[in-house]
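Fold this sequence, please.
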Amino acid sequence: MTKSQRKKEFKIQLELGKMPLRNHRFEMSFYHLENAHILGQKHLYRHIASHYWMLIHGIKTKNIKEVFGQITRIIASVFFTNIWVPKGNTGGANISPIKSIPVREELQKYFSK
């Protein structure tokens, strides 16, 4: 898959994360926001955007751990996105920000050469 296909899927996943957020379907929302993070974490704007929407999710769910986790991840994204990101990391505060994890099966095609 090409970078443009990954970018297109990032936008789709981000929208799929935002729509259920408006309807209080928080678990579904976060799953798609995680997918957006996985797809966008190597691009500065997309990386920050995925963390921003996870921050909004944390605010809407009143999850203080997620709110503070996302604030620190947004700041770290500014400095580290172009240097190093842990592949497959879903971006939530429930995962170490430096831990690489296997890319979800449904997203692997966007990382094949």
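The CA atoms of residues 34 and 76 lie 17 Å apart. The radius of gyration is 13 Å.
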